[in-house]
Automatic annotation (TrEMBL):
<feature type="active site" description="Proton acceptor">
    <location>
        <position position="276"/>
    </location>
</feature>
<feature type="binding site">
    <location>
        <position position="305"/>
    </location>
    <ligand>
        <name>Zn(2+) 2</name>
    </ligand>
</feature>
<dbReference type="Pfam" id="PF01546">
    <property type="entry name" value="Peptidase_M20"/>
</dbReference>
<keyword id="KW-0832">Ubl conjugation</keyword>
<dbReference type="InterPro" id="IPR002933">
    <property type="entry name" value="Peptidase_M20"/>
</dbReference>
<feature type="domain" description="Peptidase M20 dimerisation">
    <location>
        <begin position="325"/>
        <end position="481"/>
    </location>
</feature>
<dbReference type="InterPro" id="IPR011650">
    <property type="entry name" value="Peptidase_M20_dimer"/>
</dbReference>
<feature type="transmembrane region" description="Helical">
    <location>
        <begin position="27"/>
        <end position="46"/>
    </location>
</feature>
<dbReference type="GO" id="GO:0000328">
    <property type="term" value="C:fungal-type vacuole lumen"/>
</dbReference>
<dbReference type="GO" id="GO:0016020">
    <property type="term" value="C:membrane"/>
</dbReference>
<dbReference type="GO" id="GO:0051603">
    <property type="term" value="P:proteolysis involved in protein catabolic process"/>
</dbReference>
<keyword id="KW-0121">Carboxypeptidase</keyword>
<dbReference type="InterPro" id="IPR017141">
    <property type="entry name" value="Pept_M20_carboxypep"/>
</dbReference>
<keyword id="KW-0862">Zinc</keyword>
<feature type="binding site">
    <location>
        <position position="207"/>
    </location>
    <ligand>
        <name>Zn(2+) 2</name>
    </ligand>
</feature>
<dbReference type="GO" id="GO:0046872">
    <property type="term" value="F:metal ion binding"/>
</dbReference>
<feature type="binding site">
    <location>
        <position position="242"/>
    </location>
    <ligand>
        <name>Zn(2+) 1</name>
    </ligand>
</feature>
Amino acid sequence: MSGSAKSESGSSTSKVVKNKKDETLKISIVHSAIITLVSVLIVLFVSNPDNQLVQGIYFYIFQLRTKFNANSFAVPQNSIQFANSNTANLSFDELRDSLCPISNVLKPKILNPERSNIILHDEEFLKQSVQKLSGAIRIPTEVYDNWPDVQEAPERWSKFQIFHDYLHDTFPLLHSHLKVDKVNTYGLVFTWEGSDATKKPIMLNAHQDVVPVPKETWEKWSFEPFSGDFNGKYIYGRGASDNKDVLIGLMETIELLIEDGFKPERSIILAFGFDEEASGVHGSFNIGKFLEERYGKNSMYAIVDEGGKVFKFKDKRFAFAGTREKGYFDGTIELLTPGGHSSMPPDHTSIGIMSEFVKWIEDDPFQPILTPANPFLTGLQCFAKYSNSPLIPKSVINDIILAQFNELSNFKTRKFVSMEKKLKYLAQTSQSVDIISGGEKSNALPEYVSVLINHRIAIEQTVEDITNNINNKLSTLCQKYDLGLIHLGNTIIEPTVKGYFNFTYHNTLEVSPLTPAFDAKWDIFSGNIRHLYEDLIYPEFYHADSNTDSKFVITTPTIMSGNTDTRNYWNLTDHIYRFTPGEMDLTLNNIHSIDEHLEFTSHLQLIQFFYNYILSVDEDKSE
């Protein structure tokens, strides 16, 4: 090589080295700048999290990041128009004041001046009421999933005749004054005919059945699960709080009204299903059809069924009434593959592939969505507006208030909700892998494996959203493992010699319609709740001083994550209140579990509420 060539080669190498050094220096400078910027943002956010500029920068960066992240809070808020002509120019105080109005106290006409004192404070009345509910608990009315209809297996359902006989003997006055229809043998519909046929009936519901008590758990109970024992404060037993307390309380209420000489103008209907805990397929399903045939669609004034209760948070009481229910979806996914000896397995057996699917489902949950279509948002705003409870951090209260008006506030509210286990599934679709089965033998390849995934569908989503999510994941696995896919008998991907997925579902329910809140019927409903607690139960608190304007019971809409018998009554009215009158301790969570019990004062409050509410509804001239 000549000297000049060597010189050119050395010069070229020198340039490459210099360029690499320059490039490394640039990268180092960029990295340092990024680290510095991130550090500054972290310090700013930690030291001053409520600063709107800091929040905006954080929100913008988070949104950029989530473009590449499936697990995002950046879910489209389809039904929110964050600023419009009605709200764009309002101040924060004006926006807050527009939310969650408080109904006036409503006092119904008085039939018997002593009645409320008897219900709430009379020892003899308490004793008789305990006996009635205790007797109902002592009759086991357990039901299981997927039972055949009454006509196909009458022996399974015969326990309900024993329960009917008990009700007949315990409430003779009711049975002699009200018409009784038995729907599908054991569904009970009691009708107290009103004098004004132009008024729509009020419908009050409960269910006769209870969830089973596993024999293995009996020894863990403080009292036998069907004893109906009362210890002076609590009554114990399966059904004490779900739902024989409401059923017995309604029947007690009707007998008290009869005793007090009440003559209704508006008809009163009591509807008691007998398999609510098994989706109501034999009970409320047939009762709904029966009532629709008799009265027609949209024929009821309103329906009250089991649901939220009254809770105290520091010095405020909130009555939570469910005005909407989440949807329901059970999906079964089966995987069928060739068998063989375990000594010569494929790289991935059907169980291994299904495990990958299950992990994917759990690693990719649905994300929270919060719009005005979800009454949980309304309830959360009511709580933020009126409560001083530490359950909601002060740093997020204003964002909750603004969640339907401002995109950043909505984002922060969803983030807060997603971090609270008891709240997150009120704003998002849940998915729970509940049943899995597969494999027969230790030395045989599994030819069949299946999983059942339960979903409770968020308000802004549909059954189709759930099926699309599952189908998309299954399709990806089919491509990866050369498998087929059949969906409800329809071939999506042709089965192969390696096998196929079979995706089916039978138990589905779309999200319920939304009950209007803060209208005239709501005012009657919530006004009676205020009267019960402010005037009759705690007058010494609510009327102890002149500053009574700041002391009131707040009735707020909320969402039901589970479904009630009302799933079969949607055609009967737009106004369905899922509410169980009575106070409940937040620390108690024993429904469907060991030592189910009810503080009996709550049962007495239930009777008093329905007594007053029936009178108020009867006075309403609107329809």
